[in-house]
Amino acid sequence: MSKLQGKFTGLLQHGALLLGAVFAFAPLSLSAQVVVSKGKLQVALDKISGASALEAIKVLEHDFKRSGVIEVVPSTRAQYVVEGTASASALQASLVDASKRASLLQKNYSGSGRFPIHQFADEVVEILTGTPGIATTRIAFTSKSGAAKELYLMDLDGGGIRQITRDSVLCGSPSIAPDGQRIAYTSYKSGYPDVYLVEIGSGKRMKVASYPGINSGAAFAPKGDMLALTLSKDGNPDIYTLGLGGGSLTRITRTRGADASPSWAPNGTHIVFTSDDRGAPQLFTAPADGSGQMDRLQVGQLYATEPSWSPDGKLIAFNARIGGQFQVCVYDMATKVSRVVTTAGNNEDPSWCRNSRHLVFSRSGKLVLLDTVSAETYDIDNGLRDCVEPACSR
Hints:
This protein is mainly β and 394 residues long.
Protein backbone atom coordinates (compact mmCIF):
# COMPACT_ATOMS: atom_id res chain seq x y z
CA MET A 1 0.00 0.00 0.00
CA SER A 2 1.35 3.45 -0.96
CA LYS A 3 1.50 6.34 1.46
CA LEU A 4 -1.24 8.13 -0.44
CA GLN A 5 -3.50 5.06 -0.35
CA GLY A 6 -2.73 4.70 3.34
CA LYS A 7 -3.96 8.23 3.97
CA PHE A 8 -7.20 7.48 2.13
CA THR A 9 -7.70 4.34 4.21
CA GLY A 10 -7.20 6.37 7.37
CA LEU A 11 -10.03 8.71 6.38
CA LEU A 12 -12.51 5.98 7.13
CA GLN A 13 -11.41 5.94 10.76
CA HIS A 14 -12.76 8.45 13.27
CA GLY A 15 -9.24 9.36 14.36
CA ALA A 16 -8.10 10.06 10.80
CA LEU A 17 -6.55 13.22 9.49
CA LEU A 18 -8.71 15.66 7.57
CA LEU A 19 -9.66 14.67 4.02
CA GLY A 20 -8.37 17.82 2.41
CA ALA A 21 -4.89 17.08 3.76
CA VAL A 22 -4.60 13.98 1.59
CA PHE A 23 -1.98 15.53 -0.53
CA ALA A 24 -8.90 24.89 -2.80
CA PHE A 25 -17.51 45.18 -9.96
CA ALA A 26 -18.44 47.56 -11.97
CA PRO A 27 -16.58 47.90 -15.30
CA LEU A 28 -13.44 50.04 -15.09
CA SER A 29 -12.09 52.32 -17.79
CA LEU A 30 -9.21 50.65 -19.63
CA SER A 31 -8.02 54.05 -20.75
CA ALA A 32 -6.92 54.76 -17.19
CA GLN A 33 -4.63 51.73 -16.92
CA VAL A 34 -0.96 52.31 -16.13
CA VAL A 35 1.58 49.55 -16.68
CA VAL A 36 3.76 48.91 -13.64
CA SER A 37 7.22 48.18 -15.04
CA LYS A 38 9.64 49.09 -12.26
CA GLY A 39 8.97 49.91 -8.64
CA LYS A 40 5.52 50.63 -7.30
CA LEU A 41 2.86 53.20 -8.06
CA GLN A 42 2.83 55.98 -5.47
CA VAL A 43 -0.57 56.77 -3.99
CA ALA A 44 -1.42 59.27 -1.24
CA LEU A 45 -4.17 58.80 1.35
CA ASP A 46 -3.78 61.98 3.40
CA LYS A 47 -6.71 63.70 1.68
CA ILE A 48 -9.29 61.39 3.31
CA SER A 49 -11.41 63.04 5.99
CA GLY A 50 -14.45 62.19 8.09
CA ALA A 51 -15.28 60.43 11.35
CA SER A 52 -13.80 57.10 10.17
CA ALA A 53 -10.88 58.52 8.19
CA LEU A 54 -8.17 56.98 10.35
CA GLU A 55 -9.69 53.50 10.08
CA ALA A 56 -10.18 53.85 6.33
CA ILE A 57 -6.58 55.00 5.84
CA LYS A 58 -5.28 52.12 7.94
CA VAL A 59 -7.25 49.52 5.97
CA LEU A 60 -6.26 51.02 2.61
CA GLU A 61 -2.61 51.12 3.62
CA HIS A 62 -2.70 47.41 4.41
CA ASP A 63 -4.65 46.58 1.24
CA PHE A 64 -2.27 48.51 -0.99
CA LYS A 65 0.81 47.05 0.70
CA ARG A 66 -0.47 43.50 0.18
CA SER A 67 -1.23 44.24 -3.47
CA GLY A 68 2.50 44.43 -4.19
CA VAL A 69 2.02 47.21 -6.76
CA ILE A 70 1.18 50.32 -4.69
CA GLU A 71 3.23 52.30 -2.19
CA VAL A 72 1.50 54.79 0.12
CA VAL A 73 3.33 58.14 0.20
CA PRO A 74 2.54 61.76 1.18
CA SER A 75 0.51 63.73 -1.35
CA THR A 76 3.48 66.05 -1.98
CA ARG A 77 5.25 63.30 -3.94
CA ALA A 78 2.39 61.05 -5.04
CA GLN A 79 1.49 60.06 -8.59
CA TYR A 80 -2.12 59.53 -7.52
CA VAL A 81 -4.17 60.94 -4.65
CA VAL A 82 -7.17 59.40 -2.94
CA GLU A 83 -9.66 62.03 -1.85
CA GLY A 84 -12.88 61.44 0.03
CA THR A 85 -14.88 61.13 3.22
CA ALA A 86 -15.23 58.05 5.41
CA SER A 87 -17.97 57.37 7.94
CA ALA A 88 -19.05 54.29 9.86
CA SER A 89 -21.52 53.30 7.13
CA ALA A 90 -20.19 54.82 3.90
CA LEU A 91 -17.10 55.74 1.92
CA GLN A 92 -17.14 58.46 -0.72
CA ALA A 93 -13.83 58.32 -2.53
CA SER A 94 -12.11 59.35 -5.72
CA LEU A 95 -8.76 58.54 -7.31
CA VAL A 96 -7.05 61.56 -8.88
CA ASP A 97 -4.07 61.70 -11.23
CA ALA A 98 -1.86 64.19 -9.38
CA SER A 99 -0.11 65.55 -12.45
CA LYS A 100 -3.20 66.03 -14.60
CA ARG A 101 -5.68 66.65 -11.77
CA ALA A 102 -7.94 64.25 -13.61
CA SER A 103 -10.32 61.95 -11.77
CA LEU A 104 -9.81 58.30 -12.68
CA LEU A 105 -12.41 56.90 -10.31
CA GLN A 106 -15.17 58.50 -8.28
CA LYS A 107 -17.69 56.38 -6.40
CA ASN A 108 -19.80 56.04 -3.27
CA TYR A 109 -19.59 52.81 -1.27
CA SER A 110 -22.10 51.89 1.41
CA GLY A 111 -22.04 49.29 4.14
CA SER A 112 -20.53 48.79 7.55
CA GLY A 113 -17.18 47.25 8.35
CA ARG A 114 -14.16 46.99 6.08
CA PHE A 115 -15.75 45.60 2.94
CA PRO A 116 -16.56 48.96 1.24
CA ILE A 117 -12.94 50.02 1.80
CA HIS A 118 -11.69 46.73 0.35
CA GLN A 119 -13.94 47.29 -2.68
CA PHE A 120 -12.42 50.69 -3.32
CA ALA A 121 -8.88 49.31 -2.89
CA ASP A 122 -9.54 46.60 -5.48
CA GLU A 123 -10.96 49.08 -7.98
CA VAL A 124 -7.93 51.34 -7.55
CA VAL A 125 -5.55 48.44 -8.19
CA GLU A 126 -7.46 47.33 -11.26
CA ILE A 127 -7.83 50.79 -12.78
CA LEU A 128 -4.12 51.52 -12.34
CA THR A 129 -2.71 48.15 -13.39
CA GLY A 130 -5.38 46.33 -15.36
CA THR A 131 -5.14 43.33 -13.00
CA PRO A 132 -7.68 42.34 -10.34
CA GLY A 133 -7.25 43.53 -6.78
CA ILE A 134 -7.31 40.96 -3.99
CA ALA A 135 -8.54 42.94 -0.96
CA THR A 136 -12.11 41.61 -1.24
CA THR A 137 -10.89 38.00 -1.37
CA ARG A 138 -12.63 35.67 1.06
CA ILE A 139 -10.86 32.61 2.44
CA ALA A 140 -12.59 29.40 3.47
CA PHE A 141 -10.53 27.24 5.82
CA THR A 142 -10.78 24.81 8.70
CA SER A 143 -9.69 25.27 12.29
CA LYS A 144 -9.35 22.69 15.04
CA SER A 145 -11.91 22.72 17.83
CA GLY A 146 -11.12 19.99 20.34
CA ALA A 147 -11.09 16.70 18.44
CA ALA A 148 -13.09 18.21 15.59
CA LYS A 149 -12.44 20.68 12.80
CA GLU A 150 -14.95 23.34 11.82
CA LEU A 151 -15.33 25.36 8.65
CA TYR A 152 -14.75 29.14 8.70
CA LEU A 153 -14.83 32.05 6.29
CA MET A 154 -12.87 35.30 6.59
CA ASP A 155 -11.48 38.29 4.70
CA LEU A 156 -7.98 38.23 3.28
CA ASP A 157 -6.74 40.42 6.14
CA GLY A 158 -8.21 38.12 8.82
CA GLY A 159 -11.24 40.32 9.50
CA GLY A 160 -14.91 39.50 9.01
CA ILE A 161 -14.43 36.00 10.36
CA ARG A 162 -17.48 33.75 10.39
CA GLN A 163 -17.91 30.18 11.63
CA ILE A 164 -19.84 28.15 9.04
CA THR A 165 -20.18 24.75 10.75
CA ARG A 166 -20.75 23.76 14.36
CA ASP A 167 -20.99 20.01 13.93
CA SER A 168 -18.22 18.86 16.30
CA VAL A 169 -16.89 16.46 13.66
CA LEU A 170 -14.07 16.40 11.13
CA CYS A 171 -14.54 18.51 8.02
CA GLY A 172 -12.25 19.87 5.35
CA SER A 173 -11.36 20.41 1.69
CA PRO A 174 -13.36 23.62 1.21
CA SER A 175 -13.91 25.19 -2.21
CA ILE A 176 -15.69 28.51 -2.79
CA ALA A 177 -18.02 28.75 -5.78
CA PRO A 178 -17.12 31.26 -8.51
CA ASP A 179 -20.12 33.41 -7.53
CA GLY A 180 -18.88 33.51 -3.93
CA GLN A 181 -22.25 32.32 -2.60
CA ARG A 182 -21.56 28.64 -1.80
CA ILE A 183 -18.86 26.47 -0.27
CA ALA A 184 -18.33 22.79 -1.08
CA TYR A 185 -16.61 20.78 1.62
CA THR A 186 -16.22 17.27 3.05
CA SER A 187 -17.76 16.39 6.41
CA TYR A 188 -18.15 13.40 8.72
CA LYS A 189 -21.51 14.74 9.90
CA SER A 190 -23.21 11.46 8.93
CA GLY A 191 -20.34 9.38 10.31
CA TYR A 192 -18.79 8.93 6.86
CA PRO A 193 -16.92 11.28 4.51
CA ASP A 194 -19.58 13.00 2.38
CA VAL A 195 -19.51 16.16 0.28
CA TYR A 196 -21.84 19.02 1.21
CA LEU A 197 -22.76 22.38 -0.26
CA VAL A 198 -23.55 25.25 2.10
CA GLU A 199 -25.10 28.58 1.11
CA ILE A 200 -23.01 31.29 2.74
CA GLY A 201 -25.89 33.73 3.14
CA SER A 202 -28.55 31.45 4.57
CA GLY A 203 -26.43 28.65 6.02
CA LYS A 204 -28.62 26.10 4.24
CA ARG A 205 -26.81 22.83 3.53
CA MET A 206 -27.33 19.91 1.23
CA LYS A 207 -25.46 16.64 0.76
CA VAL A 208 -24.34 16.25 -2.86
CA ALA A 209 -22.08 13.18 -2.74
CA SER A 210 -22.52 10.28 -0.34
CA TYR A 211 -21.44 7.25 -2.33
CA PRO A 212 -20.02 4.19 -0.53
CA GLY A 213 -16.43 4.82 0.54
CA ILE A 214 -14.60 8.11 0.10
CA ASN A 215 -16.28 11.34 -1.05
CA SER A 216 -13.61 14.01 -0.85
CA GLY A 217 -11.87 17.10 -2.14
CA ALA A 218 -14.65 18.68 -4.20
CA ALA A 219 -13.58 21.65 -6.34
CA PHE A 220 -15.96 23.95 -8.23
CA ALA A 221 -15.71 24.17 -12.02
CA PRO A 222 -15.09 27.69 -13.39
CA LYS A 223 -18.79 28.13 -14.24
CA GLY A 224 -19.91 26.80 -10.84
CA ASP A 225 -22.14 24.16 -12.40
CA MET A 226 -19.97 21.12 -11.65
CA LEU A 227 -17.66 19.68 -9.03
CA ALA A 228 -14.52 17.63 -9.50
CA LEU A 229 -13.96 15.28 -6.58
CA THR A 230 -12.45 12.00 -5.40
CA LEU A 231 -14.73 8.97 -5.08
CA SER A 232 -13.82 5.38 -4.23
CA LYS A 233 -17.23 3.87 -4.96
CA ASP A 234 -15.81 1.77 -7.83
CA GLY A 235 -12.70 0.55 -6.02
CA ASN A 236 -9.64 2.80 -5.91
CA PRO A 237 -9.97 6.53 -5.21
CA ASP A 238 -10.41 8.15 -8.64
CA ILE A 239 -11.33 11.59 -9.94
CA TYR A 240 -14.92 12.19 -11.06
CA THR A 241 -16.97 15.20 -12.10
CA LEU A 242 -20.45 15.73 -10.75
CA GLY A 243 -23.00 18.00 -12.37
CA LEU A 244 -24.91 20.10 -9.85
CA GLY A 245 -28.67 20.48 -10.07
CA GLY A 246 -29.25 16.87 -11.07
CA GLY A 247 -26.31 16.57 -13.44
CA SER A 248 -24.52 13.39 -14.36
CA LEU A 249 -21.47 11.74 -12.82
CA THR A 250 -18.43 11.26 -15.10
CA ARG A 251 -15.38 9.21 -14.25
CA ILE A 252 -12.15 10.99 -15.20
CA THR A 253 -9.41 8.58 -14.05
CA ARG A 254 -9.08 4.79 -13.85
CA THR A 255 -5.82 4.08 -12.03
CA ARG A 256 -4.46 1.40 -9.74
CA GLY A 257 -3.37 4.04 -7.24
CA ALA A 258 -5.10 6.87 -5.41
CA ASP A 259 -6.07 10.11 -7.16
CA ALA A 260 -6.90 13.24 -5.18
CA SER A 261 -6.97 17.05 -4.90
CA PRO A 262 -8.49 18.06 -8.25
CA SER A 263 -8.19 21.66 -9.47
CA TRP A 264 -9.76 23.02 -12.66
CA ALA A 265 -8.09 24.88 -15.50
CA PRO A 266 -9.78 28.30 -15.73
CA ASN A 267 -11.24 27.44 -19.16
CA GLY A 268 -12.81 24.29 -17.73
CA THR A 269 -11.26 21.90 -20.24
CA HIS A 270 -8.78 20.09 -17.97
CA ILE A 271 -8.25 19.09 -14.36
CA VAL A 272 -4.94 18.83 -12.54
CA PHE A 273 -4.70 16.36 -9.65
CA THR A 274 -2.38 14.18 -7.57
CA SER A 275 -1.89 10.48 -8.25
CA ASP A 276 0.47 7.82 -6.92
CA ASP A 277 -0.37 5.41 -9.74
CA ARG A 278 3.26 5.36 -10.85
CA GLY A 279 4.94 5.43 -7.45
CA ALA A 280 5.34 8.50 -5.29
CA PRO A 281 2.58 11.13 -5.62
CA GLN A 282 2.96 13.30 -8.71
CA LEU A 283 0.85 15.83 -10.63
CA PHE A 284 -1.21 14.86 -13.66
CA THR A 285 -3.74 16.53 -15.94
CA ALA A 286 -6.70 14.97 -17.71
CA PRO A 287 -9.54 16.24 -19.92
CA ALA A 288 -12.48 17.32 -17.77
CA ASP A 289 -14.99 15.52 -20.00
CA GLY A 290 -13.38 12.13 -19.39
CA SER A 291 -12.47 11.70 -23.06
CA GLY A 292 -8.69 11.40 -22.82
CA GLN A 293 -5.72 9.97 -21.00
CA MET A 294 -3.96 11.52 -18.00
CA ASP A 295 -0.61 13.20 -18.62
CA ARG A 296 2.10 13.67 -16.03
CA LEU A 297 3.50 17.15 -15.40
CA GLN A 298 7.28 17.06 -15.14
CA VAL A 299 7.54 19.43 -12.16
CA GLY A 300 11.06 18.41 -11.14
CA GLN A 301 10.08 17.13 -7.68
CA LEU A 302 10.01 13.53 -6.45
CA TYR A 303 6.92 14.04 -4.27
CA ALA A 304 4.27 16.55 -5.44
CA THR A 305 0.73 17.06 -4.11
CA GLU A 306 -2.11 19.60 -3.62
CA PRO A 307 -2.13 21.39 -7.01
CA SER A 308 -3.91 24.73 -7.50
CA TRP A 309 -4.37 26.07 -11.05
CA SER A 310 -3.98 29.86 -11.29
CA PRO A 311 -6.96 31.93 -12.53
CA ASP A 312 -5.00 33.07 -15.60
CA GLY A 313 -4.19 29.46 -16.50
CA LYS A 314 -0.44 30.05 -16.68
CA LEU A 315 0.73 28.57 -13.37
CA ILE A 316 0.10 25.64 -11.07
CA ALA A 317 1.04 25.91 -7.40
CA PHE A 318 1.68 22.68 -5.52
CA ASN A 319 3.33 21.12 -2.48
CA ALA A 320 6.67 19.33 -2.70
CA ARG A 321 8.40 17.35 0.00
CA ILE A 322 11.93 18.71 0.19
CA GLY A 323 14.39 17.77 2.92
CA GLY A 324 11.70 16.20 5.07
CA GLN A 325 9.41 19.25 4.97
CA PHE A 326 6.73 20.50 2.62
CA GLN A 327 7.36 23.59 0.53
CA VAL A 328 5.18 25.47 -1.93
CA CYS A 329 6.30 25.42 -5.56
CA VAL A 330 5.00 27.10 -8.71
CA TYR A 331 5.05 25.35 -12.10
CA ASP A 332 5.02 27.50 -15.26
CA MET A 333 2.85 25.90 -17.95
CA ALA A 334 4.71 27.71 -20.77
CA THR A 335 8.32 27.06 -19.76
CA LYS A 336 7.54 23.74 -18.02
CA VAL A 337 9.83 24.79 -15.17
CA SER A 338 8.93 24.92 -11.46
CA ARG A 339 10.45 27.01 -8.70
CA VAL A 340 10.28 26.74 -4.92
CA VAL A 341 8.65 29.86 -3.43
CA THR A 342 8.87 29.02 0.29
CA THR A 343 11.91 28.08 2.36
CA ALA A 344 11.22 27.81 6.10
CA GLY A 345 8.95 25.42 7.98
CA ASN A 346 6.15 23.23 6.64
CA ASN A 347 4.13 25.10 4.02
CA GLU A 348 1.04 23.35 2.69
CA ASP A 349 -2.29 23.67 0.84
CA PRO A 350 -1.56 26.57 -1.56
CA SER A 351 -4.51 28.44 -3.08
CA TRP A 352 -4.27 31.22 -5.68
CA CYS A 353 -5.81 34.63 -5.25
CA ARG A 354 -7.68 36.04 -8.23
CA ASN A 355 -4.67 38.03 -9.51
CA SER A 356 -2.59 34.87 -10.15
CA ARG A 357 0.24 36.53 -8.22
CA HIS A 358 -0.55 35.92 -4.55
CA LEU A 359 -0.93 32.58 -2.80
CA VAL A 360 -2.48 31.73 0.55
CA PHE A 361 -1.20 28.63 2.34
CA SER A 362 -0.87 27.16 5.83
CA ARG A 363 2.32 27.18 7.89
CA SER A 364 2.40 25.58 11.34
CA GLY A 365 -1.31 26.15 11.90
CA LYS A 366 -1.27 29.74 10.64
CA LEU A 367 -2.41 31.11 7.29
CA VAL A 368 0.09 33.08 5.23
CA LEU A 369 -0.24 35.36 2.19
CA LEU A 370 2.70 35.18 -0.24
CA ASP A 371 3.51 37.57 -3.08
CA THR A 372 5.15 35.18 -5.56
CA VAL A 373 6.76 38.10 -7.44
CA SER A 374 8.40 39.97 -4.55
CA ALA A 375 8.59 36.97 -2.15
CA GLU A 376 7.01 39.11 0.60
CA THR A 377 4.88 37.19 3.10
CA TYR A 378 2.17 38.36 5.47
CA ASP A 379 0.76 36.39 8.38
CA ILE A 380 -3.04 36.43 8.39
CA ASP A 381 -4.00 36.87 12.03
CA ASN A 382 -7.52 35.63 12.77
CA GLY A 383 -7.22 34.61 16.42
CA LEU A 384 -7.75 30.90 15.71
CA ARG A 385 -5.38 27.96 16.01
CA ASP A 386 -4.58 25.02 13.75
CA CYS A 387 -5.84 26.74 10.59
CA VAL A 388 -5.35 24.67 7.45
CA GLU A 389 -6.66 24.07 3.92
CA PRO A 390 -7.29 27.66 2.81
CA ALA A 391 -9.39 28.15 -0.33
CA CYS A 392 -9.56 31.63 -1.87
CA SER A 393 -12.55 33.12 -3.61
CA ARG A 394 -12.06 34.17 -7.23
